[in-house]
């Protein structure tokens, strides 16, 4: 059991963080547990040094067992192994998902006739309930803390397992929830609803030629057309007119790709050479 392994684990790693079992599931004599870890940040981390941190995560005996989940390497303790390979652990996750499915079947039993579409029809209520469970620190049959890391509650894959639906169906179930502003999605991570930022073009670079300025701008978020926007204005003037667009090869998540900038520069120069034969207006 995990509690029998913790002493040796703490002796090697110290008690920062400490672990508390919130819920234990034993499969074939192997303990898997939803645990709370609490500690103090002891590495340089954006000014969070010395501050307490707390979280909940799924662990199993493998994580705390010497030479399975950790070992002493050159005098220092370090974690090893791949937790995903533990079969009892996978079974425990599946059991919890089944348990949630039965809970929802029981809870909504009287609201509609029972048929194959019974649970999917309850998707909005189930999603809201799962969010509440996550907020309350409950285990909802999800391994790791990836969804939390991405600022969310859980993965749509977990919902698919609970509802026993393929992912292709789950995406369809999620769409109306987004339209009703109940949730947002970042990849497959379910998040609190966030109003998308207003569409805005951000200037990336400009070229000046013969009294004209050519301006190349990029979209500021993924819901906007993924292309360059080229405009021109006269030097010293603010009024701009549109020259054209050019599709982006890469989404400019962390700034534009070098190839995209190169291509946009060539395109803007070409567009500029076409218009510089016109004379800038006076005044
Ligand atoms: Zn294990």
For this entry, give a set of tags:
283 residues, alpha+beta, 3 domains, 8 helices, binds zinc ion
Structure notes:
This protein is an alpha+beta fold and 283 residues long. It has 3 domains: 2-83, no CATH class; 89-192, no CATH class; 201-275, no CATH class. It is 33% helix and 28% strand. The protein is built from 8 helices and 12 strands. It has helices at 2-13, 61-64, 87-107, 123-135, 146-149, 156-163, 167-179, 258-275, and strands spanning 18-27, 30-40, 52-60, 70-73, 76-79, 154-155, 183-186, 189-192, 201-209, 212-219, 227-234, 241-247. The chain has a 4-stranded antiparallel β-sheet with strand order 9-10-11-12, with helices on one face. A 3-stranded antiparallel β-sheet has the order 1-2-3. A 3-stranded antiparallel β-sheet has the order 6-8-7. Strand 11 (227-234) and strand 12 (241-247) form a beta hairpin. Helix 3 (87-107) crosses helix 6. The radius of gyration is 27 Å and the shape is extended. The N and C termini lie far apart (84 Å). The mean pLDDT is 86. Zinc ion (ZN) binds at residues 30, 60-62, 86, 88-89.
